[in-house]
Each structure stands twice: as C-alpha cells, then as structure tokens.
C-alpha cells in the first residue's frame, strides 16, 4: 500500500466533493449554464481519477516504480485538466480572460490517458 498515492486519492476525492458542491450551489446565478456544466465535468473527472488513485495505491501487484510513474501522470493530468476547467469556467468571476490557459485542458486529458494506458499495460504485463 502506498500512503502517498492513497493520500492523493483522498485529497482529490475530498476536494472534488467540495468543488462540486461549490459548482452546484455557489455558481448559480454567477455564471451561465454552459460554464456550470463545464465546471461539473472538471469535478466528475477529478473524482473518477481520485478513485483510480485509491485503487492504484491498493494494488499490490504493481512495482513501486510503476505505481509512481502512473501516479505522476494521473496527478499532473488531474491538475491540468480539472483545475484548468475550473478556472476557465469562472474566469468572468475572477475578472480576467483565462483563455490563454485553454491548451492546458487537452494536455491534462492526454496525461490522464497516458496514466490509464500505463496502468493497463502494467496490469496486463503482470498477469501474462
């Protein structure tokens, strides 16, 4: 069991719930429906990957170095994907145009995809 990975899973799960509640209740009337839907996408993906981090931390079959590699891709992906969506969704509230960070969202998505790919590769390699 990897305490760092598990702690990150708990942290991202906890903050996904907090951000989700803020998005559902705090943003109403402040941003348009499209922005709220986008914000929700960020919280959904953050929660999915928080749960994945918990599973990764509990997987005894994977070597520590492989877990660390997957962990890095997932955490970087969560931060770049979900957090850029949060900022882009509330940029009108923040008072600036956050479009300059829009490219971080697909980069974060790519990192999440790589994390999933590496996890699948390592699992299938272990069981073959």
From TrEMBL:
Record keywords, A-Z: Membrane, Transmembrane, Transmembrane helix
Major localization class: membrane
Cellular component GO terms, alphabetical: plasma membrane
Superkingdom of the source species: Bacteria
Localization of this protein: Membrane
Family: Belongs to the UPF0382 family.
Protein name as annotated: Uncharacterized membrane protein YgdD, TMEM256/DUF423 family
Organism whose genome encodes this protein: Cellulophaga fucicola
């Amino acid at each position: 069991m990897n305490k760092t990975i598990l702690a990150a899973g708990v942290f991202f799960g906890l903050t996904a719930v907090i951000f989700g509640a803020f998005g559902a209740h705090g943003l109403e009337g402040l941003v348009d429906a499209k922005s709220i839907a986008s914000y929700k996408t960020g919280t959904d993906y953050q929660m999915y990957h928080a749960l994945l981090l918990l599973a990764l931390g509990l997987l005894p079959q994977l070597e520590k170095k492989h877990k660390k590699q997957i962990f890095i891709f997932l955490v970087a992906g969560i931060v770049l994907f979900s957090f850029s969506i949060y900022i882009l969704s509330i940029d009108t509230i923040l008072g600036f145009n956050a479009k300059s960070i829009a490219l971080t969202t697909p980069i974060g998505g790519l990192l999440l995809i790589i994390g999933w790919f590496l996890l699948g590769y390592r699992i299938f390699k272990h069981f073959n």
